[in-house]
Amino acid sequence: MKFLCSLLFLGVLFLSACENKENLPVPSVQATAKSVALVFDPAALDMGDILEGDKATASILIRNDGDGFAQIASVTSACGCTTAEPETRLLAAGAFTPLHIVVDTFGKRGDIRKSITMTDGLGNESTAWITLHVKSNPHAMGEGRSIFDGKCASCHFDPAKGQTTGIAIYNAVCVMCHGVNAQGAYAPALVGHHELDILSTLIANGTGTHHMPAFSQDKAGPLSPQQIKSLAKWIISLDE
Fold it and tell me: In a 3-state reduction of DSSP, which class is residue 145?
């Protein structure tokens, strides 16, 4: 009888232990995810004055401010002229890695601002901003390059494909230099032109410099005759 009572007592203890174990809090994936925090240090960097055609280089840090491992899934820049590459992509808590940045300044001038976006393994994004001032360099004219070549094509050539309306064409390949609504930015304002033939010819043939090359397809540019006409009409309409 005593033996049976002992077995019953042990059984009750076992069931009680199982119930208590089931009631213990279980760490959630979300809690772990929130503890991971990849940040840029600094999140803004001024690279100073650079001669056009020179490569601007700098390094900032990516730091893991969380309490667990974090993975850098990708680092991308706003345009093809800028590359950003981390030395390592898996960071322990409190660790950091240099991010090496290179900006190709060909075809640029004046104050330039670029963004770099980092995505971690959980899909969280962080953005850093770099600024620089590109100074005129007469020697850059002899490089035999075009803003339609190489990585520059991702901003100045490729986006024009399939665009049909004037505003879409402008926002695809003109706005980054001539500013919103053609008000001017790195390049002069285009508002104030009223002659369709003159403006169309200017767009098609360019100004003879690498800053404003010929945009016509028959001169290795990205725009068809119809696209040039639509673009010129839209620019002229801004003054109406």
Answer: coil
**CA–CA gap between residue 210 and residue 58 (Å, rounded):** 26
User: Long-range CB contacts (< 8 A, 24+ apart) of 186-193?
Assistant: 186/108, 186/109, 186/110, 186/111, 186/112, 187/211, 187/212, 190/235, 191/235, 191/238, 191/239, 192/239, 193/232, 193/235, 193/236
Distance between CA atoms of 205 and 196, rounded to whole angstroms? 14
Whether residue 130 has pLDDT greater than 90: yes
Question: Which residue type sits at 145?
Answer: R
Question: Which tokens is 240 given?
Answer: 């109406």
Least confident of 31-45, 74-88, 190-204, 225-239: 31-45
The residue to which tokens 């402008």 are assigned: 170
- Report the distance separating Cα 132 and Cα 101, nearest Å: 12
Cis peptide leading into 42, omega within 30 of 0?
yes
CATH fold of 36-141, please?
Immunoglobulin-like (2.60.40)
The strand pairing partners of 150, in sequence order, are: none
Full-model pTM:
0.69
Q: Where residue 141 falls among pLDDT bands split at 50, 70, 90? A: low
Confidence of residue 143 (pLDDT cuts 50, 70, 90): low
Domain spans of the chain, in order of start: 36-141, 146-237
Measured between alpha carbons, how far is 38 from 72 in angstroms, rounded to an integer?
8
**How many other C-beta atoms can be found within 10 angstroms of the C-beta atom of residue 186?**
16
Nearest residue to 215 via CA among 206, 64, 106: 206
To the question of domain 146-237 being in CATH 1.10.760.10, the answer is yes
- For residue 150, the 8-state DSSP code is G
